[in-house]
Specification:
heterodimer, A: alpha/beta, 4-stranded antiparallel beta sheet, 10 strands, 41% helix, 23% strand, B: 210 residues, mainly alpha, 81% helix, 0% strand
């Protein structure tokens, strides 16, 4: 028991060991991925479309299963965990949000607590707390997803993912579909939230600015392989060709973004 | 003797045969729903089953109804009573729209919603009962509506094998070259079809997700 606890404390929150993933057709999407995510950090998976970022993310909550290798959460291989339990302990936010259109905001946010059998008053209290946490007015609870703006919808998506207080949060381009102003605001709120909650976050984006601003480390992916894992500062000043190409492509003003993010 | 007068005079028999008609359509629709929705779910979730299931239902649909009644006649238990036979035939016809719309409805659920549900740890059953079926409900219902309207018409032919229903009037009228008799069957049948179409259409609209 105590040995077990010790292992949990020393093991990385999430660890990929020699992970390969191929489609059933045999086409490889990920090759020999080794990666550790530390407890409480925001690891950004950065890369272009098709580089394997989303695949990597879905391997964590077992929406996909590795062809070979293993993924460990707190030292325990995910394939040894009941998949439903595993997923309920991991918050999941996607670009298209995926709110249930036939549920109002309150029911959407309270979904996991409800299927986990929380008593109704506790769910209601939790929903209220979460709405406040993501900067939404309590009056929004009775509305339906189609009555919300894009930014509000994504806030509800984040609140829903946080509902059962998971230690890990997976975010797949959550702010990608928003207008620039809303995106900026949600990024800022995400930083504030993360400072308070200290979740282990894996965040997928193809936007270097977002990566520099939000990430404590940036894992750069290309064609199904992990190229390098760098701090935002390290990324900016890297002389490796691929990070340098990103920095050049995104142009001026990146320094200030990275500083703001790490502050 | 005008038609209204005829209807008044024979209202007892018209009512009786209308109820018989409703019974044939109602039971067969219920059976088709109980069989068709699970088959639709199976073909939506396991694409391997899609072709055989929808293909079979399609083929059944192409068999002329009189021929189908004939084919089913030698089937034991079923063939022993005309109403059983009629109900089975009507059920088989009603299957296609129910299966097809269940399939379409479930496949039409926003993939992001399903992915979010799975990612949050809903079990397969929870996903089906709380997300997929509620969101597919209006599409499924429109399949049921088609099935009912078609069945009301088809059930008139069941009278040819002695299963009763409003077809009795129509066949009697045809044999006696009596238009009033034909109308005594055709008008209530049309009214049944129209009101089922209207009622289920209204329900469908109310259940449509926003």
């Amino acid at each position: 028991m105590s040995a077990n606890r010790k292992m949990e404390q020393t093991a990385a929150a999430i660890e990929f060991r020699e992970v390969d993933y191929s489609l059933p057709t045999g086409q490889p999407l990920l090759r020999r991925l080794n990666l550790q995510v530390q407890r409480g950090e925001t690891l950004v998976l950065l890369g272009r479309s098709g580089s394997g970022k989303t695949t990597t993310l879905k391997l964590i909550n077992r929406l996909l299963s590795p062809t070979s290798g293993e993924i460990r959460i707190n030292g325990t291989p995910t394939r040894d965990t009941d998949v439903i339990r595993l997923r309920r302990g991991i918050g999941y936010v996607i670009q298209d949000v995926g709110l249930f259109p036939h549920y109002n905001v309150e029911r959407n946010i309270g979904l996991v607590p409800r299927i986990e059998g929380w008593p109704a008053p506790r769910i209601r209290q939790r929903v209220e707390e979460l709405l406040q946490m993501v900067g939404l007015d309590a009056s929004i609870a009775a509305r339906y997803p189609h009555q919300l703006s894009g930014g509000q919808r994504q806030r509800v998506g984040v609140a829903r993912a946080l509902a059962a207080d998971p230690a890990i949060l997976l975010m797949d381009e959550p702010f990608g579909a928003l207008d620039a102003l809303s995106r900026d605001q949600l990024q800022r709120e995400f930083l504030g939230l993360q400072r308070r909650l200290n979740k282990t976050v894996v965040f997928v984006t193809h936007d270097l600015r977002e990566a520099l601003r939000l990430g404590s480390r940036i894992a750069l992916m290309e064609a199904g392989q992990l190229v390098s894992v760098l701090s935002p500062e390290g990324f900016l000043h890297s002389t490796d060709p691929l990070p340098a190409a990103y920095v050049q492509a995104f142009g001026e003003g990146l320094d200030s973004v990275a500083k703001r993010g790490s502050s | 003797m005008n038609i209204a007068h005829y209807f008044l005079q024979n209202h007892r028999e018209i009512l009786e045969l209308t109820l018989e008609h409703l019974w044939l359509v109602g039971i067969s629709t219920l059976l088709a729903v109980f069989i068709g929705i699970p088959l639709g779910i199976v073909s939506a979730h396991w694409p391997v089953w899609n072709r055989p299931v929808l293909g079979t239902a399609n083929i059944i649909q192409t068999v002329p109804s009189l021929a189908l009644f004939g084919f089913l006649l030698p089937v034991p238990w079923i063939g022993a009573r005309a109403d059983r036979l009629a109900i089975l035939a009507l059920t088989l016809y009603a299957l296609l729209p129910v299966i097809r719309n269940t399939y379409t409805g479930i496949r039409g659920v926003d993939p992001a919603v399903v992915e979010a549900g799975r990612g949050m740890g809903l079990t397969g059953n929870q996903l089906l009962l709380q997300v997929e079926l509620p969101l597919a409900l209006s599409v499924i219902l429109s399949g049921v509506r088609v099935a009912v309207v078609v069945s009301v018409g088809l059930a008139t032919i069941a009278a040819a094998i002695g299963a009763g229903g409003l077809g009795e009037f129509i066949f009697r009228g045809l044999a006696m070259v009596n238009n009033q008799l034909i109308l005594a069957g055709a008008i209530p049948a049309a009214a049944l079809a129209l009101s089922a179409d209207f009622g289920l259409g209204w329900l469908e609209k109310r259940l449509r997700p926003r």
